[in-house]
Specification:
Length: 101
Amino acid sequence: MLKEWHGLLDRHYLMLGACELNSVSEEDYLDLGRAGLGSCLLGGLPDWVVAYSARLVRFINLERTKLPEEILRHNLEEKRKYFADTCLEVERSDAEVQVNA
């Protein structure tokens, strides 16, 4: 997941975009607030750092949506190497547990 969606160039792109704008949008503040990052943590930081933090929070939210399917796909590939029969619902439940662990 990290290699495909958040490699070195992706991280630099997010940081450079935040530096270039050097401002924090309302959407940035809303996303940060939903993630539990408020003014007591971010207050006094340069705007680009706050904007970059919001971009990272958005990636984390994307990862939460994509990761269960990635784990499920990986688990099924691995189990099919050793077992002829797998239960998709059990594997899907295991993937959810792994994401939340």
